[in-house]
Amino acid sequence: MSRWIEKHLKWVFPAPAVIFILLMMAFPIIYTAWISLTEWSMSAVTPAKFVGLKNYINLLGHDHRFWMSVWRTFYFTGLALLGETIIGLGLAMMLNRDFPGKNLLKTLFLLPMVATPVAIGMVWLLMFEPTIGYMNHFLKALHLPPQLWLASEASALPSLVLVDVWQWTPMMALIILAGLVSMPSDPFEAAEVDGATPWQVFWKITMPMLRPTLGTAVILRSIDALKTFDIMYSMTQGGPNYSTETLNLYGYSLGFGYFQMGAASSLLMIFFAIVMGIVIFLNWARKGALA
Amino acid sequence: MKRFHRSFVAGLTVIMAAGLVLSGCAGKTPETKPTTPAAETTTKKPFEGVTLRFLASQHPWTDTIKKDIAAFEEKTGMKVAMEVLAEGNLTQKLTVELTAGTGTVDVFMQRPLQEAKQFEKNGWYADLNAFVKDAKKTPADWDINDFHKGPMAVETVNGHLVGIPLVTEQEIIYYRKDLFQAKGIKVPTTMAELEDAAKKLHDPSKDFYGIVMRGQGNPAVTQFSSFLYSMGGDFVKDNKFVMDSPEALKALKTYGDLLGKYGPPGVLNMHWQQASALMAQGKAGMWVDANSLYLNVTAPDKSQVGDKIGFAMFPAGDKGVAPYSITSWGISIPKSSKQQDAAWEFVKWASSKEMVLKTQAAGNPSARTSAWNNPEGTKSWPAEWVEVAKKSGEVGKPSDRPLVINVGKARDLIGEMITAAINGKDLEAVAKDRNVKLNELLAEENK
Predict the structure, then answer these.
(1) Mean pLDDT, chain A, as a whole number?
(2) Domain spans of chain A?
(3) Contact at 8 Å (CB) between B103 and B31?
(4) pLDDT confidence of residue B354
């Protein structure tokens, strides 16, 4: 026995990790893939019925709600990512210089990130309330017209983006700040000697050197943003009239609202493929930028 | 020696890691404790050491029963671990845990009209007849015949008694007595008068709105049902959805116009919680919803205008007054529970004459004749409320939603019609389209 273990040590040591991954990650994915080919209402009495690709055909072929939720998933992610990257970059540049109270400010920036998402949802839900909420109070104080926020189909999704930006910009800022801090100082000194303007320094030196960091930050954040569920579920549950229903929420409603586990699983498989595709694409784009 | 040592360490690592994985899995299986059957024990506390997990809905009934649970625990010796969730979340949590079938839930509250068919089809209910008909487990004075016939019929699916009815309710109008008097408005008895009253009360420049009701599609369906019945329509006729009939369209338009023209901003995102909050804060003139929710707008700790709220019967449509009068909540035991006797002990207690009288006196209309006949049972309620509840019960319809298996999906589709009606856009087209989808759903279920 001990000799056998010794001989296969390189297999034995990683085995627990491999078994864990197989049990906890591969199995659920394969099981979901299997359910996606069946029709099953979560009942133990009536077993799952194999229907082949019917669920996929239904979703991809003529499900308006599915395509709308695909679009909203991208819309939400794109808009949130844009806001978070630009504001995050600005914040990081600001934090990269010395001023009194800098560390306190850095700590404060972390607060939205560490707060519980459902609690955040509840707080923003109150702030967005059109009749008694703070946001409209604030707008009125600035002599701007009050908004319906989450209560109108047009503004509900952008309102959710606002919450996401508020919550996750600090993370972007921190990653970018790490990139800024680790930059060598000689190119900047050389530029100063040569008389470059701050604008030129930013575009010709800071940005190119920051690109790998930005790429990583964008990949990390986009995976998370695509999968956002908590704040949406706690604030709108996909409403009003499905205007904030992303793929995740539609999958949830198919599974736990309608008991259509097969359809829900096929949606999740498609979603899985989309997220994978985007990550591969972004990674490829990042490597291209490096080369 | 060194060699032995190395392989020993390697072996140990594997064993420990395996143990870690196993214990990780084992952590998810629930702890189950043995149940002592009630009949066999002679000790004072027959259920000593039993912990009962009770999933409850956020509801005034739950608030009332919570106060007495300590006494029940004291009497029986068991512990009741109660989890309170909003109704939609409760259904979802139940679905997941009952599917797993590991016996993690012992007692739960259910909405028979929403869930009974689906849960029974999935084989999740314990048949309570087994307990009710067993004289050893249920004393004669618990008295099954004391329950109203309608609610018992709703709780019986395929001959199985799937739950004991707890709360019944009807749809009524809540209105601001002071404002009606000040403006000389008559309490509405017809749809036209309802709309007229909303119009006269509506004053958005002062953040005051004529009427508030549920505007979120899916939850609004039940409150819309009374409008539908009163206009002479129904969800399903001759086993076909008829939500595109002229009666249904008229009901949809009435509901949508009321909220679209005289409702508060953001109504599309409102469930009863938001609607009642506006009423309680004195920002709305009328609220149309279930009478069982009245404490939310009358209790002094919840409402700024509690003493100014009046109650009126649902108004007459083209075909007279026809509000729903339904069993909104019941209490059930899942088949998978491993301590069913203890669970029944709790259900029996919660639905006993004594407790029902208590919960009813605290404002939860029950399904027990004895509680209604006892003056104690209605003493603390506003006389006007009791009057309206009795009258509504006489003319009411027993269901407030289409009785299909997949109620959730049907409600979403009808909810889309309601949203279109509130937005005042393409109502007819949306109704036609969704009605086709509803019939597809029904055909699928009847296959």
Answers:
(1) 89
(2) 62-290
(3) no
(4) 92
B51-162+327-395 CATH choice from 3.30.2310.20, 3.40.190.10, 3.40.50.12780, 3.90.190.20: 3.40.190.10
At which residue do the structure tokens 């359809």 appear? A263
Lowest mean pLDDT of B5-14, B248-257, B389-398, name the range: B5-14
Distance, in Å, from the CA atom of A266 to the CA atom of A36, rounded to the nearest integer, reads 4
A153 touches chain B (CB under 8 A): yes
Q: Indicate the residue of A15, A153, A257 with minimum beta-carbon distance to B408.
A: A257
Tokens of B321: 């007054």
Closest CA to B199 of B259, B262, B252: B262
Architecture of domain B170-324+399-446: 3-Layer(aba) Sandwich (3.40)
**Helices (runs of H) and strands (runs of E) counted in chain B:** 19, 12
Residue B41's pLDDT band, with cuts at 50, 70 and 90, is very low
| Pairing mode, strands B284-290 and B209-212 | parallel
Nearest chain A residue (CA) to B123: A45
Quick: pLDDT tens for B141-154.
899 999 988 888 88
**Euclidean distance between CA atoms A152 and B286, whole angstroms:** 23
Q: Tell me the percentage of chain B whose pLDDT exceeds 70.
A: 90
Stretch B211-239: mean pLDDT, rounded?
Answer: 94
Q: Give residue-wise pLDDT tens across range A77-118.
A: 999 999 999 999 999 998 888 888 888 888 888 888 888 888
**Whether this model's pTM surpasses 0.90:** no
**What sign results for the dihedral spanned by CA atoms A77, A80, A84, A86?**
positive
CATH 2.40.50.140 fits A62-290, yes or no: no
Q: Is A48 on the interface with B (CB under 8 A)?
A: no
Mutate to test the interface with B, among A18, A31, A40, A43 (most CBs of B within 10 A): A43
pLDDT the model gives residue A150 = 87
Residue B268 sits at the chain A interface (C-beta within 8 Å): yes
Alpha-carbon Rg for chain B, nearest whole angstrom, is: 25
Tell me the C-alpha distance between B222 and B202, whole Å.
25
What whole-number distance in Å separates Cα of residue B276 and Cα of residue B293? Answer: 9
Which residues on neighbouring strands pair with residue B110, listed in sequence order? B330
CA distance A270 to A60: 9
CB contacts of B216 in chain A (<8 Å) are: 239-240
Say if the Cβ atoms of A44 and B99 lie within 8 Å.
yes
The tokens for B431 are 């109704």
Tell me which chain B residues have a C-beta less than 8 angstroms from the C-beta of A23.
21
CA distance B340 to B155: 19
